[in-house]
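To whoever is covering the structure queue this week,

Two jobs came back overnight. Logging them here so there's a record in the thread.

Job A:
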Amino acid sequence: MFVLNIRIMRSVLIIGAGRSASSLIRYLLAKSETENLHLVVADLSLALAEKKTQKHPNATPIALDIFNTEERRAAIEKASIVISMLPAHLHIEVAKDCIQFKKHLVTASYISDAMQSLDEEVKKNNLIFMNEIGLDPGIDHMSAMKVIDEIRSKGGNMLLFESFCGGLVAPESDNNLWNYKFTWAPRNVVLAGQGGAAKFIQEGTYKYIPYSALFRRTEFLEVEGYGKFEAYSNRDSLKYRSIYGLDDVLTLYRGTIRRVGFSKAWNMFVQLGMTDDSYVIEDSENMSYRQFMNSFLPYHPTDSVEIKTRFILKIDQDDIMWDKLLELDLFNPNKKINLPNATPAQILEKILTDSWALEPDDKDMIVMYHKFGYELNGEKKQIDSKMVCIGDDQTYTAMAKTVGLPVAIATLLILNGKITTPGVQLPIKKEVYEPILKELEEYGVIFNEQTVPYFGYNPDLF
């Protein structure tokens, strides 16, 4: 007697095969046999989808234009679950299709107003739309809520929460004066901090930092084995105050990590106006690097571009800031911008990409640092939690790992019925963060927590 054993493969549709999808795809392919998975990796570029799937028997690369409604819906209808690695503003049509065909959805992006508006319908269809499940947002939420929930379970009252994260170059690949290379979207780096004052709360007082002063108001951090870092404030630190249940917390601050000295140097671009994305520079295509630099400086009949730059930025002759500008070749009269109708920010991005691109053998690094201040039994205490993750290479970067792995793990947990709460959500519930953080440790994403003296921002009280 023969017993027919037919395995029903579960289809995972991954839309978008860019840099952030590398570790995600590798993880799910590695689990595909034991978990009965078949991956459909869809991208506008079939070549890119083929490269990421590497002819794996449990993967099918396809070309997909998400603006082609018929193609998009056909792909979603066949899937067991959908992962969208598209830019955030492109998720919404995918999300609506997922509701129509009753498919769960996972993204690493912030929850937009449009996505949030689908919550009622998602719940009505008993679907899970998991968002903000990458690095930042993602691992930051999960690692923070784990400690906050532990403090509360002991009866502690939260006083302070600070959270910092940065995508950097690993120490072994750190070979320029800026101690920085692009490990993610360069445009986001160039435009960081724009669009309004940074807002946070310290000791119960609201604080604001205008963009013009943002990179001169930094906080210093020490990470054992990796040295000293600095952090500048994120635009809105209070966005998650209610979500984290921290409405009464005295201090709430979120920041971006860089190596010490980066922010002071970056501030030169801000003061000159090079990060402005609101207007186009005439004849930018034929402009040289030197002409671009000079376009932000006043006319002088005899002073060179170099002298004018030193004067405007108040750079002394022995100041490392000058060497940092020279390293970028900003005064070269022969290098052309070659970007038509470009904004200052777009031109600056192009110049920096020439100097800050990761080399083939370079590795990147993610640093995350949380501070939790709380009161328990009348005593003020603090826990510092730190995580450092180093990438493998240019493809399987620390950024791709820390963005892609939580997405992949959450996808499997949803498929296997381990995450059950329906609705449009982010990963702040224990059923989500506990198993994901535990499995991430197997991949080197480990938080080291230590108890330190609570200092707060009122030292005169002690």
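Job B:
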Amino acid sequence: MFYVLFTTILIVVVITAAAAARFFDPAVGKILSRTLGQDLADAWRKYVFFAIVVSGISGGVRQWSLQQYLPPAPGKGTSQLQLSGERWLLELFQAFISTLQSIAWVVLLFFLCAMLAYAIMRAVEYRREEAGHPRDVE
């Protein structure tokens, strides 16, 4: 029964992570093309997509939580939780929420870095304009 739970959680997590990555892909593509240019944007967009999926999977599949359903090692105690319908539901819900939380952190970090890069680009453009058009000195 443990293997079925693990496989089900893995499927839910992969589908959730891929759906979230596809949801954010257009916005990431626009930001990267504006910041890096079209040549680099495609490669970086694929990397950000991969990072979102990997972080979602690693955050959604909580190995330490699933270990409570395995038989204990000899001499380590005798507590093993039984998989009931309620536990299945809770584990699947927790996997879904944990996946979204992990993805939210990655996307937040990406957008903060993108905002910082955009601010730096605007400051550089402003300085170029100022250097190109000196103001009249009184």
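Note for Job B: The mean pLDDT is 86.

Please reply-all if you pick these up so we don't duplicate work.
Q.
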